[in-house]
Structure formats: C-alpha cells, structure tokens
Amino acid sequence: MSAVNRGLRQASRTLRLPQRFSQTAALRPLSSRCSQFAAPRASTSSSSHNHKNTFSTMAALQSGAAPVPAEAREYDPEVKDIASYVHNKPIDSELAFDTARWVFLDTLGCGLEGLRFKECAKLLGPIVEGTTVPNGTKVFGTPFQLDPVNGAFNIGTMIRWLDYNDCWLAAEWGHPSDNLGAILAVADWVTRTNRAGGNLAGGKLFTVRDVLEAMIKAHEIQGCLALLNSFNKVGLDHVVLVKVASAAVVSKMLGLSEKQTADAVTQAWVDGQSLRTYRHSPNTMSRKSWAAGDACQRAVNLVLKVMKGEPGVPTVLSAPVWGFYDVLFKGNKFEFQRPYGSYVMENVLFKVSYPAEFHSQTAVEASQKIHNQLKALGKSAADIKGVTCRTHEACIRIIDKQFKPMDNFADRDHCIQYMCSVMLVFGRLTAGDYTDGSEAATSPLVESLRQKIKCVEDPQFTTDYHDPSLRTISNALTVELNDGTVLDEVVVEAPLGHRLRREEAKPEILAKYKRHLEPHFSADKVKHLVELGQDPKTLEAMSVDEYVDLYTVKDSKFV
C-alpha cells in the first residue's frame, strides 16, 4: 500500500469513529429501551467457522473477510421509539377514538368514490385475472378477494385516488388515513384466515375498534415524523411515512415482537423511497394517486418478510455514509416536537367541502363566497380583471401554477389557480371538473382567469400554519373588476374540516359519506351503513370481516 493510501485510510478512520460516537450519543436519550434491540454479538469461538446459521455469499473466502465487530449494535433510537410506542402505549383518548371513527367512515367513502373513475378502477384487482385468494382480503365495493399485499395496494389506491381523504399539514404534508390500505387489508385477511381455522397472530379476530386503534397509532407515527421534518425539501414524497407507519402497526397486528417491529421499521426506511417529481410540473401524473397504495403494499410485504425471519438494519438512519440521514436527508437527523400519543388523530384535518388539495381549501371557500357576491352584484367571473391570493409558503411551493399548462387531472387538482377559477366561474368544484374534456377543463374563461390569479406569501399565514396551537391553512382573496372596483378581501383561516370547526363539519362529513355510498348500494343498504356508522358501540364491536362484507358486491358496474 502506498504512503498516500495509508494516510487516507488513517484519516478516514480518525474522522469516522468520532462521528459515529457523536451520533449515537446524541440520539440515545430518545429511547428507554436498549438491550432487547441489540443485534447479536459476533461469535469469537472456533465454531464461528460453521456457516450453517450465517448468511454469506463468499463462504470460500471467509478467512479473507474483514472481522465483524464484537460489540452489539444498538438500533437507532428513532426506530426503538416507534416500536415501543406501537407495543407499549395504550390509547385511552375517547376523542381520538371518536375522531378515528369519523376518519374511518370518510375514508371508506372516499375509496368508493375513487372506484367511479376508470383510471383508478383499471389498476385494481388480482395480478392474474380471475384469481381469488381463499380467506384473503376483500376489497370493499368490488368482487375482488386478494392476498394482503395486493389487497393493501387496491384499498390504498382507492382511498387516495381523488385526494379527498383526511390531511396533515406541517413541515411535511400527507394523508394519514392512507395507512388504512395496509391496516384494513391485514385485519380482514387475518380474521378470515383464523375464522377458517388458521392461527395468524395467535388466532386473533380483529374488531373495528382494533382497526381504529391501529389507525390512531399510524396517524401518530406519520404525523409526528412530519411535524418538524420536511421530506419534500430533499425531493422525497411523503408516502415514505405511510410505509414506515404502516409497517410499524401492521407488524404488531401480525403478532410480531417489539424487536421484529423495529426490524420492519428499519426495512421500511432502507427501502427505495419515492421521488416527488410525479407531483410537480413538468412530470405531474397519475402516480401521485396510487403512490400511497404502493407504500401500503410495500409495508405489508416487508412485514411479511420479517415475519419469516428476515432481520432488520439496526442503524439504517444513522450509519455514516450509507444511512438514510447521510444519503437522503443531507446529513440531518430527525427532530421531534412531541412524544407519540394520540395528538395527530385528535387534530387531523378533514376534506369536507371540496375534492381539492388541502392548501387550497380555504381559497376555494373564499372563491365560493366571491362567486355569490358577484352574482348578487349582477356580475360574473367574466368581469374579473385580476385576483391576489394572500397565502402561506407551503401553498406557493406545492400548488402555485399560474402559468403552467394543465395537461391532465393531476395538474388540475394540484393548481390553486385552476380550483379557484372553477369555483369563481361555475360556483362549484367537483372531482369531475378535473377530468380531461370536462366543462371546466375545456372552459376558455377558466383558463384565462387562472392566469389572472397571483399568489403572494403572507409570513404571518406561514407562521400560523406551523403553530401547534393553530395549524391554520389561511388564504385571503382580493378581486379587482374590469371597471376598477376592488371587492373587500375575503379571508378564510381554518377550513371546515379543521379541529376548530369539527362540530360544524360532522353533518357535512356524514352527508359526504352517504353521497359516496349511494352509487354503489341500494337505498336500504345505504341507510343501514349510515346508521351503523353513527352507533359507535355496535360498530366498534363488529368483527372486521363481517363489517367489510357489508361493502362487498358480486358485480360492480365500476370495475
């Protein structure tokens, strides 16, 4: 070895060891559980040459391999905290369970509505046409009965397709009810299998309340990770958090140990993460609508591999050079605002009034008020010269597309100018307004008006957006007419589905659920499901398979 190479290797060794020590020392206080997560120590006895239980692709070259460190490897504290929360934290918040019930109903309704769109329906069903899995996951609203991995994709894709389910806004954005794709698929499969004589998860028969508890914990994991950590700023899509949260709760549902849950969580972190490019111009496309379904199926698949004995990756986050922090997070560690509890479910946002990306909800509500005001004045959107939208930074970064072309559904439902223009012109905003060839998508007035809507950041709105006591999503619209008249600014700070307006929203959430049921079921079935949804005691005591059977159809006109 040359002197130069020896010098480089020695310098690398000197730099690397203190860095590894400082990362471990800094993160250790986050977790109280250590010893049970330690990876097995390497054997130093002569029996270490017996490779019966040692994986190696180079057995013949074993003597030339670098020695394995004798010290046990601790799991990253962030991973241990998640595993400990899932296994040891009781959920005793009735507010969280009540909110979870509303989220559950709303999410099922959103999935049923998604089925009505052929671009969604074409992706659903078994991989091999005609396949039915005995005791498998039933996909509600369809005749499909699938393996739990594909079942998680189907349910997750339906739920997310229209961007109409719940929402969480912080440093990272996302939709925690996306996790229901994995949770419901596994709960249904396990229950049907055990009822048929199987013994998954110790013979567990899941109830709807079990599903609600799993939802609360998945919401909490995804939401707390999102509070202070921006994945979008490094180009990653928020569905990485769906994969991590689903892997954590599903592993517990399948009867895995706390250490195996940690293993599953590390597998989710090491798994290739989706890029956000499919959500932004010039690449906006339909993958954004099935990305959550993909995250759900990956989570279930990874947990099943751990269930079969696959180990974890203990320092998947903190490993120098090759860990998540160094490779994908610019060397930064995750920050945490609060311990895991039930905060996220208690404060989650519902999309009640409009199928619109959440940062635009208050702007669309303001547009509806302006539409009515113009109508009262004997004027219309054709009389508008320009609109200024005072908004928050996240809105500008995600959906401010004033002059970008609207090439498809995905472009339109993530453009604040388009959504406001449709409301200003027609006094409505429905999922059908995003489709190619629709009245709104082909309207010259909508197209010209959206290019007259300018977004400007209000720093106070951005501050309020991140304030844990507020978490408002404020937008304010000022309209100037062609005759020079300037209408009073219309400000909406909290959308109807916000915690501050929750009671006001509940009748609308129920009406939305009923509206989404009606195209699929008879009037009697719709009435029964709505009434059951409003009877928490009966609903929560039902077994998951019996409840899902209420939503299954032998023949669907949509798939």
TrEMBL record:
Residues 354-528 form the MmgE/PrpD C-terminal domain. It comes from the Eukaryota. GO terms for biological process: propionate metabolic process, methylcitrate cycle. One of its GO terms (cellular component) is mitochondrion. Gene3D superfamilies: 2-methylcitrate dehydratase PrpD. It holds the Pfam family MmgE_PrpD_C. Keywords: Lyase. Belongs to the PrpD family. NCBIfam families: PRK09425.1, prpD. This is MmgE/PrpD family-domain-containing protein.
